[in-house]
Every structure is written in C-alpha cells, then in structure tokens.
C-alpha cells in the first residue's frame, strides 16, 4: 500500500546504512498480481546483502525496518506497506518457530523467483538442491511484469 517504489527504495537504503550489512545487489522491481485475498498489485524485488548479523538478528532488523515504514499486520496475506522476507542465507537450512530458512514458500512464488533469478541465478536453494534459475522454469510467470525504468 502507498508509494511502493519510494518505500522499497527507502527500505533498501535503510538496510544498506545498517551496521554489519553491506548491500551487494538489487533486482529490478516487478509489478505482480496479489496472491491471497483480493487487493491491489504488489511491487516485488530482491536484494543480496552481505551481513555480519546471524540469521535471527537479521530477521529482527528486517522486522524493525518493516515497522519503520508503517507495517501493520491485520489480514493474513493482506495488503501491506512493506514486507521484507529472508529468502536464503548462504546454504543454511533452519527451522525454528520464528524463522525458517530457506523461506518455505519461495520455490512456488514467481514473484520471488523472477527477481531472485535476475541477481542470483546460480544460487542453490538448499532444501530442493536446485538452482534458482531452474526453479524459475517450473512456475507461471504470466502475472509478473517488469516495472520499466527500475
Ligand atoms: N524466512 C523468513 N523471512 C521472514 N519472516 C519469517 C521467515 N521465517 C519465518 N518468519 C516469520 O514469519 C512471521 C510473519 O511474517 P509475515 O507476516 O511477514 O508473513 P507474510 O509475509 O504475510 O507471509 P509469507 O510468510 O507467506 O510471505 C515473521 O514475524 C517471522 O517470525
Ligand atoms: N504478488 C504478491 N502476492 C503476495 C505477496 C507478494 O510479495 N507478492 N506476499 C504475500 C505474503 O508475503 C502474499 N501475496
């Protein structure tokens, strides 16, 4: 919800300025049809961060950044101002009540795999053992559209 392009750019900048985080790459932004209850389109993208923070601390940083940009949790999979998900962390597999890595739904989501394949095509998703660029071949990308100029 809101000025999504500006919110995403500002959120990325916030992360890049966080001690222990170095921004290595960002994808283009993609306009994507919402999965879940009826709601406006999303703007999705991915970034690669080099971090000194362990995964749980990185999740806290992401959640704090969502809060900074006004994230309110109401409806499940409902509209939101900003959603920052931790998709992959090296080749780590982690399953705790508050954090699962890889993100458990990433392999099914064209809105994740299209931008991720742009910046990390040869990253292996460690649960399936498959490359991001190969996972992308198995999803329907018809509802994912490049935002021109991004
Ligand atoms: N890899 C992960 N990245 C982000 N949050 C995660 C992850 N694994 C578990 N979580 C937990 O999920 C909680 C809820 O996340 P959130 O409300 O953003 O879900 P969502 O984005 O609506 O749905 P989805 O998880 O399907 O993308 C977070 O507070 C966090 O504890
Ligand atoms: N297009 C799109 N749909 C969604 C998204 C998202 O990022 N993009 N995130 C969701 C929950 O995280 C639910 N539905």
TrEMBL record:
Domain of life assignment: Bacteria
One Gene Ontology MF term: ATP binding
Give the EC number(s) under which this enzyme is classified: 2.7.6.3
Alphabetically, which GO biological process terms does the record hold? folic acid biosynthetic process; tetrahydrofolate biosynthetic process
Keywords attached to this entry: ATP-binding, Folate biosynthesis, Kinase, Nucleotide-binding, Transferase
Task: Give the pathway.
Answer: Cofactor biosynthesis; tetrahydrofolate biosynthesis; 2-amino-4-hydroxy-6-hydroxymethyl-7,8-dihydropteridine diphosphate from 7,8-dihydroneopterin triphosphate: step 4/4
Q: Any idea where the 7,8-dihydro-6-hydroxymethylpterin-pyrophosphokinase domain is?
A: 76-87
Q: Which SUPFAM superfamilies match?
A: 6-hydroxymethyl-7,8-dihydropterin pyrophosphokinase, HPPK
The keyword Transferase belongs to this UniProt entry's keyword annotation: yes
Nucleotide-binding is among the record's keywords: yes
Reactions catalysed, as given in the entry: 6-hydroxymethyl-7,8-dihydropterin + ATP = (7,8-dihydropterin-6-yl)methyl diphosphate + AMP + H(+)
NCBIfam families in the record, alphabetically? folK
What protein name is recorded for this chain? 2-amino-4-hydroxy-6-hydroxymethyldihydropteridine diphosphokinase
What organism is the protein native to? Amazonocrinis nigriterrae CENA67
